[in-house]
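Standup notes
- DV: blocked on the single-chain target, sequence here:
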Amino acid sequence: MSTVTTTPAPTRTHVPAPTSALQNSLTMLRRNLRHARRYPAMTISLVSMPIAMLLLFNYVFGGTMSAGMGDQGSGEYIDYLVPGILLMAVGSGVLPTTVGVCTDMTEGIVARFRTMPINGSSILTGRAVGAVIQTMVTIVFVTGVAFLIGFRSGAEPVEWIAAAGLLALMSTALTWLAVALGQLVKAPEAASSVALPFSFLLPFLSSVFVPLDSMPGWLRHFAEWQPYTAFTETLRGLLTGTEIGKFGPLAVGWGIAIALLGFVWARSLFKRGVTR
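- DV (later): unblocked, structure below
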């Protein structure tokens, strides 16, 4: 009597189906916000730097600056100063974002994420959205301190909403640029030098602290057309009622251009996989 040998059916290995890009982005956002909560040193520095600049220029240099601008005392100078300091608060977010992205790239967590069935762009999106949220929270703290030390604004609610939108636009633009820069630097220690022009140098070469008319001609032409001046003058007009003029469209144009450049550049670097 012959026996029939049956071949067992091959077992199928269960492979998790890729989840949606939105779900992945929210997961990465929660990861970044938890990191910010567990390691608050970078967040504290993000808040403390613009507040320190605000106090320094108001109480130490405010009288001299006001006299040079034709004002009496420092009461009016703080109204001139605060919009630019809010923009510096946005710029200071470039450093922790650049460091965070570089750290993820160099420590291997991104390489591990690439092996998982997740949407690759969500890694960058979660980082960018988390950075924008942190920056907007920083702006709230800086604004509160500004009101405590004498800042006054006659802006209507619509103008405050427009100001918040402008700050969110600049934050988004600089954040995506920082995400791209973080993929280029080879070590987290080098991130500070890469981020320095956006967080510190450009604000001093703009109308954040002094009017454009007080600058020498060659510097005035550069300052007049660079992003920080456009954003500062637009925000100053919204909050204090000064003339905005050409700076409004210029600020929106700069914001959209930098955001698109940073987004496309960051996605391109991530897809190519930057060699470490």
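- Follow-up: The CA atoms of residues 82 and 146 lie 7 Å apart.
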